[in-house]
Amino acid sequence: MSGHPNHTAADAPRTGGSTRGFDLASLVEYTKTLECIHCGLCLTSCPTYQLTGVESSSPRGRIHLMRSVAEGDLEPDAEYADEMDFCLLCRHCETACPAGVEFGALMEHARSGLTEQMPRPPLARALRWIGFRFVLPRRRVLDLAGAALRAVQITGVERIGRWLLARAGSVVPTSPRVPKGRARRRLEPSTPADGAARGAVDVLEGCVMPVLFGRVNRATGRSLAGLGYESRPLAGVTCCGSLHAHNGDLDGARTLARRMLAAARATERDGSDPLPLVVNSAGCSAHLKELHHLFDPDDPDRAAAEELAARVYDFTEFAAPRLRRRPPERSIEGAWKGPFAYDDPCHLCHAQQIRTPPRDVLAALPGLELVPLENSEGCCGSAGIYSVLRPADSAAVLEPKLDALERSGARTLVTANPGCHLQWQAGIERRGLDVRVVHVAELVARAYDGRTTE
Amino acid sequence: MAAPSAIDETLLRALEAVVGARGIVSGHARLSTYAADGLPLFSQAPDLVVLPRDTDETARVMALLHTAGVPIAARGSGTGLTGGATPAAGGVVVSTARMRSILELAPADRRARVQAGVVNADLTTAAAAHGLFYAPDPSSQQACTIGGNVANNSGGPHCFRHGNTTRHLLGVVVVLADGEVLDLVRDSNDPVGLDLVGNFCGSEGTFGIVTEVVVKLVPVPERVETLLALFTDLDAACGAVSDLIAQRLEPSAIEVLDRLTIEAVEASVYAAGYPVDAGAVVLCDVEGTDEEVEAIATDLVRIAERNGAFEVRRAADAAERKRLWAGRKGAFGAMGRVAPDLYVADAVVPRTKLRELVRLATEICRELDLKLANVFHAGDGNLHPNISYDRRDPDEVRRVLLAGTRILEACVAAGGSITGEHGVGLEKRDHMCALFGEDDLDAMRDVRRAWDPSGRLNPDKLLPIRRCSEIHADAVTTERVVPSA
Ligand SMILES: Cc1cc2nc3c(=O)[nH]c(=O)nc-3n(C[C@H](O)[C@H](O)[C@H](O)COP(=O)(O)OP(=O)(O)OC[C@H]3O[C@@H](n4cnc5c(N)ncnc54)[C@H](O)[C@@H]3O)c2cc1C
Ligand code: SF4
Ligand code: SF4
Question: Where is the 4Fe-4S ferredoxin-type domain (chain A) (predicted)?
Answer without folding.
Answer: 26-56, 77-101
